[in-house]
Amino acid sequence: MRILVILVIISLYSCSHDYKTIKVKGSDTEVNLAVVLAEQFRKTNNEFSVAISGGGSGLGIASLLNGQADIANSSRPLSDEEVSMFNVRRITLRTVIFAEDATAFIVRKDFPLDSIDVPTLANLLSGRYSNWKPVTGLDMPVNIYGRQSNSGTHSFVSKKLNIEFSRNAKEMNGNAQIIQGVKMDVSGIGYVGAGYILHGTQEDHSIKVLRICERSGSLAVSPLDETAIMASRYYFQRPLYQFIPVSSWNKVSAFLQFEKSAAGQKIIKESGYYIVNRQ
Asked: How far apart are CA 146 and CA 122, in angstroms?
């Protein structure tokens, strides 16, 4: 009888502890921001434990399907296939758009290019241009630094440019690796979250963020221009999503409320992202 009572007490404690443990997985674009939000949330909600990990939007969404996360951070919407899988498993999701981000295209600081139009960028990243000569006049190979296929940013850029990436594109694990690769490569071009640039490398003078124009001769816009982002004038801007199973909603509601609070909104903005008023 005593053993049974002890087991019940342990079980109740475990359930209670688990209810205060929030697991957030997914987008590398959002991971730095998520860590800062979690750290500040814990200062006023120390009964909670918030575990943050990246690995890509696809990994976060898969973790929800497998019951291994409470929140999936994603820099893209769900695919039709993913929606179908959640329906098959009878997992109902709620969607929160908690910030706006822009994808930045980077080259080395000394690279002779400051802006680029969307059609030319598509030619470069698809491999139709394998040399920089048509763009800059320099006879150098185009070296592409991008994300793996499970990345929401990979999917986002591919869809916006309506291309398949070149087979020669280097698939990196995250923003930091892409930036490091471009810094070391005189003919490299890569893409990263603009929030990551602002938050993590604003003192790094080894890279240059290209301004983007939709077509040759149109206004070139920087992803670091807050006014342009708020006016939806940058071609590669997007909402950042959080997908939450209904079964985890009550558990994570305090964390979501913190994101919407003045303190949370201040963190989002100071981390290089943009405030949105969507629900």
From this structure: 14
